[in-house]
Structure prediction request, 337 residues.
Amino acid sequence: MPLLENYSLKQLNTFGINVNAKLFANITSEEDLAEVFSNPLVKENKLLVLGGGSNMLFTRDYDGLVLKVSINGISVKEVGDDVFVTAGAGEVWDDLVKYCVSKGYAGIENLTLIPGTVGASPIQNIGAYGVEIKDVLESCTAFEIATGEIKTFSRADCEFAYRESVFKGKLKGKYIITSVTYKLSKTANVQTHYGAINTEMERREITNPTIADVSEVVAAIRVSKLPDPSTIGNAGSFFKNPIIDKTVFDELVSQFPDMPHYPAPDTRVKLAAGWLIEACGFKGIVDGNTGTWKNQALVLVNHGGATGQEVYRFSEKIINTVQQKFGVLLEREVNIL
Prediction:
């Protein structure tokens, strides 16, 4: 298949940063991958695999090959109460969530309206409102760049951690995910304890919520807090929620008793990055062509014409200010390129 030259990526990243790729190809099948990697030009260029472009910030043109993964398709296998849903890596994540909710397949309703594609879900171990991909992933298939073979990874193989996986660690740049299988259930075990879900359920007078109720409430909460990338450039949550030792937390909460916090593994404590940033006065501010969203300080936005470098410098200002005030070092969740 032909490689396109000097290809604009502005419409392929949700920040809307105006950059170009030296080479570009749109992948719609595993066969496309095999064909692309048979091209000698591929070995001469660095590689970037692009899904929905919703978790990255381009700070310059990409001097290499960008592969846009557009492998689609959804299939279902029911085994008793379990439902195994397999989706192509190019499927829009929220479309998959809507499909599963409409069929009564429970397990990913809390992940409603997360931007991006299915292929990114195991890489990032995406999560929201008390649910992560590691809770539901059965397996995923991936194209091995070095050999051209398709390999299947189990949940254990993925080595999941908070917003981390083996694909961001020791296997980074070695595989391209082509499909993901999720183990869902016909019997709902709704999770409403995290964040504002219960409050919104009570406001709506819902006492016995279905997965459709949970999905609708999560969508309403997210819409109230997060901007639509089609109207203003953003990548959703720009920073990870920091996880700190309990001794550090005990000292902090004595100074800031209203600080939101959640239990984390190994008796550690997870803090809300958005609250830390807002407490430093950053919520809704405009800094040149960038800034934070008016309803959620965790989200950095492109007000129009912002460069990736401008957004990056602003994020550095936030990191430094939060560290000075709280002694907590924020880590960016987005990939910086």
